[in-house]
Amino acid sequence: MSDDTLLDQVKDPANRADPYPLYARLRETPVARQHDGTFVASTHAAVSSLLHDPRVSSENLPAADRPRTGNPFKDWIVKPIRDHITDTHRPFIFRDPPDHDTLRAAVMREFSQGRVQAMRRRSHGLVAELLDKQGEAREINVVDDLAYPLPVTVICELLGIPSEDEPQFHGWATQLATALEPDSLDDDEVRATNSRTFDDISAYMSGLIKEKRRHPQDDMISGLGTMGDYDLISTAILLLVAGHETTVNLIANGMLALLRHPDELRRLRDDPGRAPGLIEEMLRYDPPVQFRTRKALADIPIAGVTIPKDAPLVLLLAAGNRDETAFPHADRFDPDRRGVRHLGFGGSLHYCVGAPLARFEAEAALVALAQRLRDPRLVEEPPPYRPGASLRGPQRLRVATAGLR
């Protein structure tokens, strides 16, 4: 009989450093009902099937309900209007077709080949600048010194956010990322904090969008100006948060894997051409997004069980990535794998729109770390992890070094 508390154990911070044994136990029952009625899909086949199933909805956020202020006008007039706007203009990762498809297509048009290639070149320059700042340091924190500032600078430049405004987004993005955690859906305090944060960042984006409409520039917010204001605000917020929160984890998880496999670190140093295949394996082996939540729109028979209509779902991408039936020796970090069909960027309609950015930012960062750090050694094993179980990555990654080349 399956253990109906395994998802709770996955979410427990005590298991953040290594949830993979729990994922292995979950795979024994490909789709398992948990004690709270949530159904968890954990094998590669089950997760892939549900990612492509039109009976699975991404519109699983509870209705907006901002905290009351005690001011009758705000509580009875302003609050219902703002809650309605929030509910009808969610970021497109929380929307189903046709709205999702329309918004996503507009964003994909802005990820032009020329713009992406320009940012690819820019990312190598940014990595060099960030590492040069370390001077003669004998220890660096890969998260704070590189993995965070690189993608936040890239996404801000793409969106057209002034560089002097970048620092204030750190707290906003970190807080809003909690919306991807299952427990946040039922935590009134977290939801209230997220509402306030969303209103703060929305006010900033509203002002920036007005300026872009008056004076368009060669950036994504200007290019998305045909959207209505509310959809453009939610899309800009989504791109900002998703554009760096996940890449921070990809770079940090990737460097951690290399430090734990020093032969692979040396091979990358000597042959940077290995980077693309190595990053695909990292996306399989320890992905930055471990799972996503969904909702069933109808009864769904799968893997010997029936997921009932309206049941909450958790698609364990990281568990599917360690499925032996899809990846022989799945627990082995093996950058020489070929034809890796990982779930690191999700799949189907909601495949990550920023996948090209994440790939080349990770490549620039990891190649530079491999080539420039002399005798790198992990200081903390395991490193401390960020709170989230879904967006999982080290809080810090301290690396001792004999210096930088």
Could you characterize the architecture of this molecule?
- This protein is α+β, with helices and mostly antiparallel strands.
- It has one domain (65-287, 340-400): Cytochrome P450 (Cytochrome p450, Orthogonal Bundle).
- The chain contains 16 helices and 10 strands.
- The protein has helices spanning 6-11, 20-27, 44-51, 72-88, 99-110, 113-132, 142-147, 149-159, 169-176, 188-214, 220-223, 229-260, 262-270, 275-285, 317-320, 355-372; strands at residues 31-33, 39-41, 56-57, 139-141, 292-296, 300-302, 305-307, 312-315, 377-378, 398-400.
- The strands form 3 sheets. It has a 5-stranded mixed beta sheet, with helices on one face.
- It starts with 5 loop residues before the first helix and ends in a 5-residue tail after the last strand.
- The model has no long low-confidence stretch (mean pLDDT 93).
| Number of DSSP-assigned strands | 10
- Oligomeric state, counting identical vs distinct chains: single chain
* Physical arrangement of strands within the biggest beta sheet: 1-2-8-5-3
Estimate the helix proportion, in percent: 40-55%
Overall CATH architecture? Orthogonal Bundle
Specify the CATH homologous superfamily: Cytochrome P450
| Number of H- or I-type helical stretches | 16
Strand content: 5-15%
| H/E element sequence | HHEEHEHHHEHHHHHHHHEEEEHHEE
Structural class: alpha+beta
Distance between the termini: 55 Å
